[in-house]
Design goal:
Helices cover 43% and strands 15% of the residues. By secondary structure, it is of the alpha/beta class. It has one domain: NAD(P)-binding Rossmann-like Domain (Rossmann fold, 3-Layer(aba) Sandwich). InterPro entries: ComplexI_NDUFA9_subunit (IPR051207), NAD(P)-bd_dom (IPR016040), NAD(P)-bd_dom_sf (IPR036291).
């Protein structure tokens, strides 16, 4: 028996859940989502170009958004699919993301998928959106072109260990006790914890009223990027001295980021271009469809820092174990 709150017509998986394909299943959001979906009783297929290397939740399936035939095979028998793919680090990301969305929409329709869930970006349509945000809007539209209902969640900065935007923030604070900053540090945004994004993504699958709708998601606080940097510094008992430079161009900013963080120039440029747009929730309808209280900014920062610390300890333990094993064999 399929639970009442599973999307109408969705194909059942194990124990009454839904058989779901998660694209980007090895990624920052996708890996966490696959685990949460499985814990919620859904049958998960984790799409990856290298299934033999996949060690996440669910069953690995081969698929590439550049190969429509592989998408059809990956989607076969699925009632729903999560689309978490983008080419942010590619100079030609707009064309590549549009082509990929068209291929996925055609494959989903051919496979009889009943719902696509897409994670896009916040930003008011009336504003002069960045290339990155305009591309996210285009993907929303293209995913629905073949008639499969699309549920869209639009988010701003997603905070969590391994996320590009969060790592940029953390590394800036860690590496630069004093920094020269451009105008975009005063742009307002509404950060959200990755765990809360995942909770919303799972929740809309189980809510029939979410079908075909666009939702905006964010945490409880609206902050400028400067406030976010300052709060991270305060939490870690660091002192941050900031000197605003209004004429620092996006190109120079992206080069500066690549020097002091792990973010490459192309990705940094896309992120910085988007930081000129205010990304704040204007409609909180999602709170009535998937009701819970998201983490505040300090909570999400502490969670991300603790997760990083645990991963570093685990990696150090594995290295020590390897050294001991090698020593015993000598």
């Amino acid at each position: 028996m399929v639970p009442d709150r599973v999307a109408p017509g969705a194909r059942p998986g194990k124990a009454g859940g839904v058989r779901v394909l998660v694209t980007g299943a090895s990624g920052f959001v996708g890996g966490r989502l696959a685990t949460a979906l499985e814990e919620a009783g859904h049958e998960v297929r984790g799409m990856t170009r290298r299934p033999e290397r996949y060690d996440g939740a669910g069953t690995p399936v081969a698929g590439d958004v550049g190969d429509e035939a592989s998408l059809r095979e990956a989607l076969e028998g699925c009632g729903a699919a999560y689309y978490l793919v983008h080419s942010l680090g590619d100079e030609d990301f707009e064309r590549k993301d549009a082509d990929a969305a068209r291929a996925f929409a055609r494959a989903a329709a051919a496979a009889g998928v009943r719902r696509i869930v897409y994670l896009g970006g916040l930003g008011r349509d009336g504003d002069r959106l960045s290339r990155h945000l305009r591309s996210r809007r285009e993907v929303e539209r293209l995913l629905g072109e073949t008639g499969v209902p699309v549920t869209v969640l639009r988010a701003g900065i997603v905070v969590g260990h391994g996320g590009v935007s969060w790592e940029m923030t953390r590394q800036l604070v860690a590496h630069l006790p004093a920094m020269v900053t451009p105008r975009w540090v005063n742009t307002r945004t509404q950060p959200i914890a990755v765990a809360d994004v995942v909770r919303y993504l799972v929740g809309v699958l189980e809510a029939p009223e979410a079908e075909g709708r666009v939702f905006e998601v964010g945490g409880p606080e609206v902050l400028t990027y400067l406030q976010m940097l300052t709060r991270v510094a305060d939490i870690q008992n660091r002192h941050l001295f900031v000197v605003p430079v209004p004429l620092l161009s996006p190109q120079l900013s992206s080069r500066w980021l690549s020097l002091v963080t792990d973010v490459d120039i192309t990705t940094g440029r896309s992120l910085i271009d988007s930081m000129t747009n205010e990304v704040v929730v204007t409609d909180d309808a999602i709170r009535r469809v998937v009701p819970f209280d998201p983490m505040d900014y300090d909570q999400m920062v502490l969670t991300a820092l603790l997760e990083r610390a645990r991963e570093r300890r685990r990696a150090a333990g594995e290295r020590r174990g390897g050294w001991l094993a090698r020593g015993a064999r000598r």
